[in-house]
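Most newcomers find our protein records easier to grasp once they have seen one. There is nothing in a record beyond a sequence line and a structure line. Getting from the letters to the tokens is the skill we practise here. An example says more than a description, so a record of this kind follows:
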Amino acid sequence: MKANRTSLNIIISIIIFMIISILSIYTTRVFLKDSMSSLYLKQLLFYIVGIIVSIFITYKGFNLFKRYHYLIYIGINVLLLSLLLFGVDVNGSKCWLFIGPFSFQPSELMKISLIITLASLVYKFKMKRDKTMKAEFILILKLLILTSIPALLTFLEPDTGVVIIYFLILLTLLIFANINKKWYIIGSLILVSILGTFFYLYFFNRDLFLNIVGENIFYRLDRVFNWANSSGFQLENSLIAMGSSGITGFGFNQNPIYFPEPQTDFIFTTYTANFGFLGALFLILIIIIFDSSILRLAAKKIKLIDKYIIIGIFIMLFYGQVQNIAMTIGLLPITGIPLPFVSYGGSSLVSYLFIVGILLNINKERLKYRN
């Protein structure tokens, strides 16, 4: 039991996330259209599908995914490109690929594919005996190209939140690649130059700015400015709902305050409004237990490539958790990042449970060789 505590903590956390997710989504029915009143049942179905996927990945699928990760990476990029060419516009974005009555977001699968692909490159680099500046430059160039292709395609959908995750994965794995410090200095200077050029064009050459990035950028910038000014209907009502919910909340299914996207982006507000400060603390505690289990697994004696994959998974989940919760209380801009395992959504939920399968597979293999 002690040896398998990591897997047990992960599984128990997922069960609690599932209960919290379904209950919270159920309470949003009063704010949603009649056609969306059964979202909590769909979320349960997504959980069932995701758990089946997780079991498959735990016992068979992860090894297949690692073996053919480049082909899978190429295939998902093709899907991202097809969205731009043939995708259906939903609320100003082409993020979903529709196949009959079903839809999914290729960008959710790309996050997993990118982690494994980049981790594989970093692992091969670490195994080299001669780590010259030229070899480091080639590694950085490969990582940048492999990240930039899906990042550009996803940015054009547009889905800025996922693009941020792509580059966070890249940055994290670059840090663990332990390359020469000069590259970090050069990278920082390039980033500052890009940001400086971006804001210069925004404030002093608006026509050229629009030709480069398109008019949709103003919607994204408005979100940032609204956050900086603590304004915006969605944020203001979120703060009112949580601030007035008290220690124990308004009560299950009793939230009287409306805010947009209560089942997705603002699911944490929905949950807190129902169960109050104590409920929010409980959810954060479960998140900490879940994340700690991932970090403990990374610290175990496992294959180096699996360590890199776990590190990529952790940063992806951790960013999603911090970004989603922080944006509902005005600490970060609203980016549309779902709260992992809690927000409504088939693609994101199944992809997160796919990741759980990866973690359980790595732990299973570790225990097998240990015994």
